[in-house]
Amino acid sequence: WGIAGDDIEELGVKLGEGSxxxxxxxxxxxxxxxxxIKHLPLKPDPEFRTGIARxxxxxxxxxxxxxxxxxxxxxxxxxxxxxxxxxxAGSLRDVYLAGGAMxxxxxxxxxxxxxxALHYLQSRDIMHRDIKPDNILCGFNGEVKVSDLGIxxxxxxxxxxxxxxxxxxxxxxxxxxxxxxxxxxxxxxDIWALGITLVELAVGRYPYPLEDVDEVETRNGPRTRGIPxxxxxxxxxxxxxxxxxxxxxxxRFSPACRAFVSLMLERDPQRRPTPGDLLRHEFLYDLDxxxxxxxxxxxxxxxxxxxxxxxxxxxxxxxxRYAP
Length: 324
Ligand code: ADP
Prior knowledge:
By secondary structure, the protein is an alpha+beta fold. It has 11 helices and 8 strands. The model is unreliable at 152-166 (pLDDT under 50). The site of adenosine-5'-diphosphate has 23 residues, from strand 1, strand 3, strand 5, strand 6 and helix 2. Belongs to the protein kinase superfamily. STE Ser/Thr protein kinase family. MAP kinase kinase subfamily.
């Protein structure tokens, strides 16, 4: 779809490793532009292939400025390779681990971007199912986009199960048996995951086990480096959920911002707002997207200066790769 394996020139640059496979930076020989590709193992049965083909056609049509662009895919030797837009700064996990706790403006941009993506997907009756800092990518220009949609749904059973294990940290209470309503409000789980993600970015740490974040920040200031998340089993996750709900620190986040995030972490999925409701919340009133992008650009450049220098050097050497 859209791209042939022969068109891809490998650069030998690994961008990251997900639960399924490696993501690398490559050049599309036809356009001479940079792309990111992801190799995944394929289940051999034809029905599965038809399923994946359907999914790919759908992803091709998913066009939103808040979703990482899917550019095509090809099958070789029992593997499928997805080609997508290259996001220069990597994931928000990379950014906060290096740069620490994010401020309110950065949180506002992430919330706005992910909610726009979820709103778009919901209008097409799709859940993302895997919202987390690893799946929100950003560029050194400050753009923030959601990635990895739908991929996990049509993967082989083994990889699908592995993915579920990898993302338990963001699973909503109703989806893990700590409440009702999962079936009636499937989209609400994405909102819970976004709420946890926003607190994680804001404090520089996966918010469980709960901490008195105001006290921690009064003592030490906001974290200047992020702390990698723990990996949880279902029991550990349930214990955490039962211990309470994470909150944003009061000193750095306005009442409107804190109220906005608390709505996402409403335990009853029926009462959790939809992306459309949240996009109309007062925290996002009068939002100036270009100015938030400029702010985010500074945040990511400060967090990952070596990667940014590398980008500038590569841009100077290969300007056509970065042409708009
Ligand atoms: P997961 O399987 O955990 O959802 P992925 O396999 O999609 O994660 O990606 C793993 C990592 O590779 C990401 O966290 C990110 O750092 C990097 N990455 C993925 N896609 C891109 C992209 N389009 N541009 C730049 N970096 C990417």
